[in-house]
Amino acid sequence: MPGIHPGRHHDVAAHRAEVLRRARMNAEMKARPAPRPNQLGVKGWMYAGRYSIERYLYVLHRLTGIGLIVYLLLHIIETGQRVAGAPAWGALMALFETPVFKALEYLLFAAFVFHGLNGIRLLLTELGFFLGRPAQPVYPYASSVKRHRPLTFALMALAALVLAFGGFSFFFS
Question: Which contacts qualify for 24-29: CB closer than 8 Å, 24 or more apart?
Fold first, then answer.
């Protein structure tokens, strides 16, 4: 009885095909959900996107921490080579005097300085210093990040200064 239900779907076969097509699309979309930010792995914490300088410092802090742990393990292995005798130790120390190792040693120094000073910044921030006095919240709410940003810039300027002096003494003395 075609005249009973007037409307858009007067063709039942076309309507059934459309319903099945939409059901298939929904099933496909549910089968492969988009990855959430916390499921992206390393790529998720490397991409800073629209974030501020604190996010970049967070990524660098992680990378320098991993680098310092790798150095610690390599240093223990290198120190263990002392057992091999004086000739082997002398050859290893001669290898460490090459320009490539001098540059890597400076990168290690830079990682140590950055990681240490950024750690101090994080400690002071977590303890609530440089946040100012509590106030009644008034819309638009003030961001607490902007309150400790001068500390961030001061410590990063100090890091640049230490790296400049360290680089001078590393390569020119």
Answer: none
Identify the sign of the CA torsion 94, 97, 99, 105: positive
Long-range contacts of 120-128 (CB under 8 A, 24+ apart): 120/155, 121/57, 121/148, 121/151, 121/152, 121/155, 122/61, 124/148, 124/151, 125/151
- Tens of pLDDT, residue by residue over 43-101, are 766 665 667 888 889 989 999 999 999 999 999 989 988 898 899 889 999 999 999 99
Backbone angles phi and psi of 20, in degrees to 5: -65, -40
Q: Which structural domains are found in the chain, ordered by start?
A: 35-132+141-172 (1.20.1300.10)
Name the strand (E) or helix (H) holding 16: helix 12-31
Rounded to two decimals, what is the model's pTM? 0.67
**Neighbour count for residue 115 (Cβ, 10 Å):** 19
Distance CA(116)–CA(91), nearest Å, equals 32
Distance CA 67, CA 107 (A): 10
Element (H, E) at 122: helix 99-126
